[in-house]
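Data card: per-record layout.
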Amino acid sequence: MLEHWTVLSDEVGLASAKQEGTRLAFALLLKYFTQHGRFPRGRAEFPDEVVDYVAKQTKTSARCDVRCLTNPRPAGHDPLARERRTTDPAEGDGDGAAGLAAAARGRLARDP
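The structure for this 112-residue chain is written out next.
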């Protein structure tokens, strides 16, 4: 547990910039993503021991607001889905890999 869930000094700096109510959830999401390369599906993916351990490191209560771990993105708030629906028809139909590639090309062209 220590190896995967210890909040490193630079991560502590990121977490401490958050409000106390979201600091624990931020640290848990950060460590989970670092370990698994994806975001968790819900609170059930965090054993209580992990939550307690990270809470001590972030100086928050383990009972702090970790509700956002159960549904991190409300329905209808998926920016990629929105882009897939609005891709240029000439670039593809907006569905599947062609739509994703077209959306990525559009993002790359806009980002310096």
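Known properties of this structure: The mean pLDDT is 73. The chain is about 55% helix and 0% strand.

See the next section for split statistics.
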